Amino acid sequence: MSSSLPWPLSMHLLMLRPKRNGRWWRRSLWRSVERVMGEVELSCLAYVKMYLHACLFPRCSVNGLLLSSSPAGGAVCVTDCVPLLHTHLPLAPITQLALTQVDVWCAQTQQRIVGYYQANACVSDSSPTPCALKIADKIAEQCNNAVLLMIDGGKMSPDYRVPPIVMYERKDTRWTLKDKHTIMLRQWEETRDIASQLLDSGDHSLLVDFDSHLDDITRDWTNQKLNAKIAELVSPANALPPGGGTVSIVTFTWSSSTARGRQQNINSMSINHMLLENSQEWRNWLRDPT
Amino acid sequence: RANVLIIVLTEMRDKLRKWREDNHRNSEQIVDVGEELINEHASKLGDDIWIIYEQVMIAALDCSRDDLAWTCLQELKRQFPGSQRVKRLAGMRLEALEKYEDASKQYDSILQDDPTNTAARKRKISILKAQGKSAEAIRELNEYLEQFVGDQEAWHELSELYINEHDYGKAAFCLEELMMTNPHNHLYCEQYAEVKYTQGGLENLELSRKYFAQALKLNNRNMRALFGLYMSASHIAASPKVNATVKKANVKYATWATNQINRAYQVSYARCLL
């Protein structure tokens, strides 16, 4: 253990953290509400930043981490995302560095890493690459309901009606497509419009990913300015309740819109998937130092 | 008023020239500036107009501005009928429309007339890459490099292809070629170090630390190299296979890197507050 180093970050932070207990956690408020295991909600902020990241570097593969400010257990509520790289995704040093830095920041801001997203440079192929699977596996070691999200470049045309994302969850040791009925985006049309608006106004250039931060360390990879801009545009119905994760709305399907618990007017959309196989082999590039 | 116009024109021309020489891929900006220049001031540009047409056409293809690309292509065809360079541009337009078969035929016809035309060969390899046929692209690029050993751009492209295929050994070889011919380029050193780090194992980690240090020597503001030095040194120090002397030395390197990183961030915060 390199405990003699003065640097507050521990290189082995991710590796040595004890595995979280994936117990059910029922708050008294939700006693009357039936929750479904493996539910994922994607917030407007997270979606818009992911989308802008992919648009900012249209000729590169980009990736990033999905964060949640809600407590562990029950549904996964992705409240934010951190864009990471747009060059040399398969190389280890910067990825390891970014994971460690984001982990430390999350600990300071009461968030946790709950997933990983990637958009491939090749628009016709949105299947997870070996390095995507590797990083997602590492995240799943710390978070039971981790999700892997691939942005489908082919569906990102201006008049797209469906969120251009494909989500995977970990069953046993493999990443399989998630049941579309357990994925939720509030106020999809508004979210989509906000993303288009920021793209048209050129504000997507405000987005800073970790790579850009390393090119110029005065730039803020937590994107506080952009977060504030997006927050201004989001209507109250689309925003997450304070403290995040106190959503009491349960599963949605295309046709029904039954809401239990608190009454809110939510318009959600389930996501159509393409059946993909992701049985690729990968090499062990993230070496365990111990 | 005419003077103001001339100044604006010269500025736009200089911008385009700078972007052309530096090989920037800021296509949206090039289209903005170039389109205005072509539409409003074509007569005042003299012979520069042709190279600007070429530059703007390629940028337009990159931004899906097919209308603009077509206009530029027509002007160039009219001025230089039968030119190989214009033929290549026509091929690129077909590529942008995803008509890869037709584009390939276009490049083949160029190569029939001139087998040493490197541009056409590289475009054919790009088609393979666009279609996701990495293995074939790698094979073709290797064949190309056997003939044209000095092509830096091609070596770099090959290293990227190998990295995406997780073939780090061969990627390292390509970067070694680049470092030999460009010993003062800190980016190649740093990328080589990253590849070595990714390969893993004690020997590769030591090599990566050395090349991160070399990159820092060439450019002491390269943050990736600084972080890389810290990480490789701490990994070596943490490894059970090293003896006490090596461990001590690496802890020293890592501590030095930490201090440099802290200083760099402090300076940047101070700059932000100004």
From TrEMBL, chain A:
Q: Where is the MPN domain?
A: 40-174
Name of a matching Pfam family: UPF0172
Q: Name one GO cellular component term.
A: EMC complex
In terms of PROSITE patterns, this protein maps to: MPN
What domain of life does the native source organism fall in?
Answer: Eukaryota
Stored InterPro entries: EMC8/9, MPN
Q: How does it assemble?
A: Component of the ER membrane protein complex (EMC). EMC8 and EMC9 are mutually exclusive subunits of the EMC complex.
What family does the Swiss-Prot or TrEMBL record give for this protein? Answer: Belongs to the EMC8/EMC9 family.
Name under which the protein is recorded: MPN domain-containing protein
Q: Give the lineage.
A: Eukaryota, Metazoa, Chordata, Craniata, Vertebrata
Automatic annotation (TrEMBL), chain B:
Q: Does the keyword Endoplasmic reticulum apply?
A: yes
Provide the residue intervals of the TPR repeats: 152-185
* Sorted UniProt keywords: Endoplasmic reticulum, Membrane, Repeat, TPR repeat
Reading the lineage from the top rank, the first entry is: Eukaryota
In the bilayer, the protein is annotated as:
Peripheral membrane protein
Gene Ontology CC terms, in alphabetical order: EMC complex
Keyword Membrane annotated: yes
Gene3D superfamilies membership:
Tetratricopeptide repeat domain
Concerning InterPro entries, the annotation shows:
EMC2-like (IPR039856), TPR-like_helical_dom_sf (IPR011990), TPR_EMC2 (IPR055217), TPR_rpt (IPR019734)
Q: Where is the EMC2 TPR-like domain?
A: 87-196
Q: Where in the cell is it found?
A: Endoplasmic reticulum membrane
The subunit field of the Swiss-Prot or TrEMBL record says: Component of the ER membrane protein complex (EMC).
Which function does this protein serve?
Part of the endoplasmic reticulum membrane protein complex (EMC) that enables the energy-independent insertion into endoplasmic reticulum membranes of newly synthesized membrane proteins.
Q: Which family does it belong to?
A: Belongs to the EMC2 family.
- The protein in question is named ER membrane protein complex subunit 2
Its gene name is: EMC2
